[in-house]
C-alpha cells in the first residue's frame, strides 16, 4: 500500500516533457519564480477558444498549401503556473485550400484533466497531452510522453484516449517516427519505478502494435526524443535522471547527474531483441530534440541533433543554456568514430524535408535562439531559422527584427516528387508590439529573404511546442 501511495504522489506531480509541477525548495526557485516569464507576453496562456474566418494575408501563399497546419502547446487554465512545461494542451489550427487560409481555430485537448477535472495520476490517460501532434493512419494524435495519446477529430475537437489496438500499456513518446521503408510508426515510452525502463514499440498503419521490445537501463533517464534509420533505432541515455527518493519527498524528481551517470548512445537493430542493443559511451551532455539520422554506404550511422553540454545543473529552472548542432558518427562494429559540434550558433527544433526523414539528406533546418540574459531567470528566445548542409555548414539564415519571436517551423514539400528542399517552412510568430501572432511562410530554398507570406491570426498564439501539416482534403 505504501508503494502504491508513493506512485500516486509521484504521478500527481509529473508534468509535460517528463518534468513536474512541484516547487523545489532551493534558492534558485525564488530567483526564477519571481520573474515568471512563462505567463507573460508571448508565453501568456489564452483562456478563450476562438473561431476566425476572413483571415488577412500579406504576400502570396503558394497554391500547394492545401490542408491543415496544427500546433500543440501547454496552456495554463488560470492561476500562477509553476513551470513553463506545465499546462493543459491547446491546439491551434489553420485550414488551407489551394493557398487560401479558410479558418483558424484553437481548442483545448479534452483530456480527463480538462473534461472531468481530474488530477495527474497513475492512470496514463490522466495526462495534459500538451507536447506535440502527429497525423498517422488517418488519425490525429495529441501526445505527451508520460501517458497515452488522445485522438483528435478533424475540427480539433477531442475524440478520446487512443491505445492503438487497445493493447498499448506503456506511455508513448511525444516524438514518434515513421520508418522510411515499412512506414510503421516507431515509438517508445519510459517507466519510472523499475527495469525495464525503456519500452520500444512499432505499429502498422492499421493501428496494430507489431513489435514490443523492453530494455533495461542503469536508471530512468529523461529521453524526450530518439532517431531511426533503415536498419537501426537510436536511443539517447543521458545524465538527467529520475529519482524515486526525491519524488516521494516532494522534490523535483529529475536532476543533472553528469558526474556519475554515463552518457550513452544505444544502437538497436530493428530485427533484433533487447539483448542486441549496443551501447556506446559518448561525451557528457543532453539533448531534447534530434533532427535526423541515416546510414552511409559503409555502414556508418550519422545522428544529428541539438546538444547541450549540460542542463538543469542548479535546478530544473535553468533552461537557458546554449545548444548547438551536433553530430555522431557511429559504426555498428567499430564504435564511435567521431562526435562534436558543427557550429556555435544556438539552435533547436531541428528537422529535414519530411520525405528524407530516416535516410540520407542534404539539408537540415533549425530554429535559432538569441541569448536573453540569466540562465536561471530569463527565457529562451527563438529568433529565426537557419539551413545547414549535411556536413553542418551554414547555407542560409534569417533573423527576425527584435519585436518578433518565433518557435518551431514545419517543412511542407512543394509536391510529392519535388527535389529535396523544394517547399516551404511555416510556423507561428509573435509580435510583441501589438501582442498578436501570425503564421509565417518561408521559401525553404531561400530563407534569408524572410517570410514570403503571413496569415494574421487576430489573436496571440502563445509559444508552444510541436506541430504538423496534414496535406489531406479530409481535414478541410
Q: Concise description?
A:
With 476 residues, the chain is mainly beta. It is 6% helix and 38% strand.
**Oligomer, anyone?**
single chain
CATH superfamily: YVTN repeat-like/Quinoprotein amine dehydrogenase
Strand content: 35-45%
What's the N-to-C terminus distance?
A: 50 Å
Query: What is the number of E strands?
Result: 34
CATH A-level architecture: 7 Propeller
Number of domains: 1
Kindly provide the name of the CATH class: Mainly Beta
**Coarse shape:** globular
What is the secondary structure topology, with strand pairs?
Elements lengths: L1 H12 L13 H7 L17 E2 L3 E4 L7 E5 L2 E2 L12 E10 L2 E9 L3 H4 L16 E5 L2 E5 L6 E3 L5 E4 L15 E2 L6 E6 L7 E6 L5 E7 L11 E2 L3 E6 L2 E3 L1 H5 L5 E3 L7 E6 L8 E4 L8 E6 L5 E8 L14 E9 L3 E7 L5 E5 L11 E8 L10 E9 L4 E6 L4 E2 L4 E4 L9 E9 L4 E8 L9 E4 L10 E4 L6
Antiparallel strand pairs: 1-6, 2-33, 3-5, 3-34, 4-5, 5-6, 7-8, 8-9, 9-10, 11-12, 12-13, 13-14, 15-16, 16-19, 17-18, 19-20, 21-22, 22-23, 23-24, 25-26, 26-27, 27-28, 29-31, 30-31, 31-32, 32-33
Structure report:
The protein has 476 residues and is mainly beta. It has one domain: 7 Propeller (Methylamine Dehydrogenase, Chain H), CATH 2.130.10. It is 6% helix and 38% strand. The chain is built from four helices and 34 strands. The chain has helices at residues 2-13, 27-33, 112-115, 244-248; strands at 51-52, 56-59, 67-71, 74-75, 88-97, 100-108, 132-136, 139-143, 150-152, 158-161, 177-178, 185-190, 198-203, 209-215, 227-228, 232-237, 240-242, 254-256, 264-269, 278-281, 290-295, 301-308, 323-331, 335-341, 347-351, 363-370, 381-389, 394-399, 404-405, 410-413, 423-431, 436-443, 453-456, 467-470. A hairpin with a 4-residue loop joins β27 and β28 (394-399). The longest helix is centred in the N-terminal third of the chain and has 12 residues, at 2-13. The model is unreliable at 1-9 and 11-29 (pLDDT under 50).
